Amino acid sequence: MTDKAAIAVDTLSLGYGSTTILDALSLDIPRGKITVLAGPNGCGKSTLLRAIRRLHKPSGGRILLEEGDIAQLGERLLARQIGLLAQSPSAPDDMTVEELVRLGRYPHQTMLRPWSLADTEALERAMAGTGVSHLRHRHLGSLSGGQLQRVWIAMVLAQETDIVCLDEPVNHLDMSHQLDCLDLVRQLNSDHGRTVVLVLHDLNLAARYADQLVFLRNGVVAASGRPEELMTEALIAQVFDVDAMVITDPAYGRPLCIPLRTR
Fold first, then answer.
1. pLDDT tens digits for 128-155?
2. Whether the Cβ atoms of residue 234 and residue 208 lie closer than 8 Å to each other
């Protein structure tokens, strides 16, 4: 594990029954950067993200943090290191925004350490940082999709972890709310130095927001590097089986993929 890596995935293998999902996969997640995982459906993106949070037990390999192998860490300690927002999370419609965000403080609670001023301050920072403070008494069922996604992100931020994992955080959001959500993620990274690992399907959003882009295919890393290095017509064809034209985004200077046809 290098000094610049927040997470080191070392020859990780994982499957369900006889189906292999991750096949001796190795990857370093750089500290204080945004890493985006991309690839075709079923390539192992979400499984890798959940494995990083130890929600799936690998059949081989290991995942390292500064504290060592995550398999050896206590659950509360791990939850204070890595926050995860899973794909399409759910909670009761009659729960309020504040009640949901408070759940993010669970890893910091013990029988000997009840809710404290530090917890209240973390709660308020998370809601203010995501712009949902004014919604604190609203029920989740009354929120729009964009508002609800901000509340879920606030819950993860309330954990105050150095590493934040987000699985398709813009799924089911319209264009405006997609940009709003990812701009928020970028702000959290730049202002607070959080290491962020994102799963995104949209290659153009991935190229715009990623510091490190990782292409997965068939349970292994097909390629990783800066978006300018990975967003090539040849590599997109190899990983996604799509012929595409890649140009430079005139607004952001990042690669822009124009799909042409499936191969």
1. 988 899 999 999 999 998 899 999 999 9
2. no
Do 170 and 142 have their domain in common? no
Q: Indicate whether 85 pLDDT > 70.
A: yes
In a domain, residue 87? The reply is no
Q: Is residue 73 part of a domain?
A: yes
Which residue range(s) make up the domain with 214? 1-81+161-180+189-263
Provide the pairing of β-strand 82-85 with 163-167. parallel
**Are the C-beta atoms of 223 and 235 separated by less than 8 Å?**
yes
Amino acid (one-letter) located at 124:
E
What pLDDT band is residue 4 in, cutting at 50, 70 and 90? confident
Exposure string (b/e) for 51-80, b if CB count within 10 Å is 16 or more?
Answer: bbbbebebeebebbbeeeebeebeeeebbb
Largest CA distance in the chain: 60
Number of domains in the chain: 2
Rounded average pLDDT over 31-55: 96
243 membership: H or E segment, kind and range: strand 242-248
pTM recorded for the entire structure: 0.91
- Residues 255, 201 share a domain: yes
- Asked whether residue 171 falls in the same domain as residue 75, the answer is yes
CA nearest neighbour of 5 among 63, 49, 61: 63
The enclosing domain of 217 has a CATH number of 3.40.50.300
